[in-house]
Amino acid sequence: MRVLFITPSHNVTIGLNQGVAILSSLLKKDGHEVQYILIHDRMGYKWSEWQHWLSRKLEEFNPHLIGHSVMTPQYKYTRILGAFINQHYPDIVQVVGGPHPSQYPNEVFNEGSEFIDLICLGEADYAFPQFLKMNPEESMAARTYRTDIRNLWFKFDDGRVVKNPNDIFVDLSKLPPEDKSVFDLDKYILEKGNQIEVTVGRGCPYKCTYCFNESYFDLYKKDNPILKIKDFLRFKDMDVIFEEIHEALKLSKIPIRALSFVDDNFLINKDFLEKFCLRYKEEVGLPFVVNVHPLTLNEYKGKLIGEAGVISMRFGVEAGSERLRKDILDRQTPEVAIHRAFDIARKFNVMPSSYNMIGIPTEAKDEVLETLKLNGRLSPDVVKIMTFYPFHGTRLYEFCVKHNLIDWEKKEKLDNYDSGTCLKFSLEHQFFLEKIQVIFPWYLNVFGGYDVLGLYQRNIDDILSMTEEEWEVFKYEEISQSLNQEMEQRNLIHYRTHFNRSIAIKVPTFWERSSLQRQHEIADPGEQTQ
Question: How far apart, in whole angstroms, are the C-alpha atoms of residue 128 and residue 215?
Answer without folding.
Answer: 22
